[in-house]
Amino acid sequence: MSRYKVMLMAAGFTGLVSMQAMAALSHADQDFAKKAAAGGMAEVSLAQVAQQNAESPEVKQFAQRMIADHTQANDELKQLTQQNNLALPAAPDSKAQAEQKRLSAMKGSAFDTAYMRHELADHRQDIAEFQREAQSGKDPALKAFAQKTLPVLRQHLQMAEAAAHK
Asked: Can you list the alpha helix ranges (DSSP code H) found in 24-85?
């Protein structure tokens, strides 16, 4: 067998193995993982802005919690998806980037109000998506990740509600 044929067979086998690993995750599980990763990065990035622009100590404390919890969840999600050879986004999506740009232009109490409103809406949506994955996910590891993360997201929502009402 020629070297060329051996190289083609090896390349084909490698591609097949990668495709099989990707196929191991359903389309819905892949979408969930990608959205969760992008959303988690957006939470950390926006919370870093909040650390600089917020006026309220409660909002700054909330932002610090977002950084800690979402960094931990992001790291956990990366490990889970690496086992399935799923490439996660490297940055928040364009909508989140636009929102960060908008909020970055604000300071003080105006920032606090806008940031907490954003966090309320964002965490309500996150809870719905994580709940869907926790109930209907096909991949046991991603399903367990969603189930484990849901109580933390619910705490975040409660914290955001408390801060928004002050």
From this structure: 27-53, 57-83
